[in-house]
Amino acid sequence: MSRCQIVPPFLLERIAASHPDRGVSATSRITLQIDARLRGRRESGPAPLAGPMAAVAGDAFSVYTAANGSDLPGSLVRAAGAPASGDPAVDEAYSGVEGSLALFSEVYARSSYDGKGAHVVATVHYEKDYDNAFWDGSQLVFGDGDGKVFRRFTTPVDVLGHEFTHAVTQYTANLTYQGQSGALNESISDAFGSCLKQRLAGRSAAEADWLIGEGIFEPSIQGKALRSMSAPGTAYDDPTLGKDPQVASMDDYVDTVEDNGGVHTNSGIPNKAFYLAATGLGGDSWDGAGRVWYAALTSGIRPDTDFAGFAAATITAAQAVSAQAAEAVGSAWEQVKVTPASGSSGGTGVPAPTGTAGTSVVSVTRSGGVTGVSRSGHVRLGEDPRSERVEALLAQVDLASVGSRDPQPDRFVYHFNIRGEEVVIDEHDLSPNLHELSRLLLEE
Fold first, then answer.
1. Is 323 part of a structural domain of the chain?
2. Fewest beta carbons less than 10 Å away: which of 237, 301, 309, 375?
3. Is position 258 within any domain?
């Protein structure tokens, strides 16, 4: 089961570390803790359908409220076809899910995210001041934001489209969430989230603003959106958030062990390619580049497909449209310095971890999340007041048994260096002792 969040953990970490308002910092830490607590759901699988959900199973979708709690799906508020509820979050989620289903059905002839008409469940008002939205492998979940940095996560419709598309990707190419394939996973969600936004607004590719998550920030934040597809790296520059880290060309590709190999940083490259292809083809993005990208996504590409392999798949899909379309798509990839290579599917772009040298040091770097800000911390044993607690936790950890399974979209990745020994583990595989150790090292 994948769990895909719209706000990268690194952005929440940055807020927790740098915001002068202790309430904002605490809210960000709470959001991160909630994300960690949910990791067990992947192991046990989706919960059985609740009674209210079963009652509307014949409908296309339904919207629930968690009433600021964590039980999912919560209480049914609005089923498909029901009138507006008067709750802005419920009605925004309703419109976003309805629009996403219509986009994939009417344009790409796909019945729901699984292609078989699966009922879509969306839950709003998840937890209190929760700064995120995600697809947990079986349903969509949205927080209300903290009201200081983030507004409610149902406000930008492309956020709903982004998360819905993670579900589509899960049931099609199932792109591995690491390195270049992981960056493609993120980028494809941005591409179709943008198509949804533009289709609902009736804007052509040339008229669109190409911003992802516009309106998600409170007015005090110096940022226009979470990401810009037309100009990656320019969406925000704020003392709380830092500067948007996305890159727009392979010339600036970031080789890193953080953020599952930089999936949120390097996704700016295929994002820019989609923007260039959409404007190069002209007309509407969803009917032009969107059709090409969807054909490539469903063409049988492998889960570990890299940028070169996906570029080749999009050019092949464009050739079925026209020679001019193939030329426009090829030019888009050329401008971001990706050389299409038919059959290429490897290349995760994740180097070996390097860590902190010295056997007396215990350190951690936490990366990942929708926006990609990393955070690091360390303890020098015997010199730091936290040493005794760190030693006690380490005594309860069997490093030989620690390991990760498949990375999940928008989840944290922890890179521990424990007395010179490297351990890389995903958030959903983090034991309670290692979770507490990370909190100590990061001083949360």
1. no
2. 237
3. no
- C-alpha closest to that of 371 among 222, 212, 220, 141: 212
When pLDDT is cut at 50, 70 and 90, the band that residue 401 belongs to is confident
| Annotation marks residue 435 as catalytic | no
Number of domains in the chain: 2
Answer with the one of 171, 198, 227 that is the final residue of a domain.
Answer: 171
| pLDDT single digits (tens) 272-290 | 999 999 999 999 999 999 9
Query: Which of the following is catalytic: 163, 186, 258, 427?
Result: 163
Domain that holds residue 419: 361-441
Domain boundary among 142, 171, 200: 171
User: Which of 19, 264, 415, 428 is the catalytic position?
Assistant: 264
162 catalytically annotated:
no
Enter the pTM of the model.
Answer: 0.75
Judge whether residue 174 has pLDDT over 60: yes
Q: Considering the domain boundaries, does residue 412 fall inside one?
A: yes
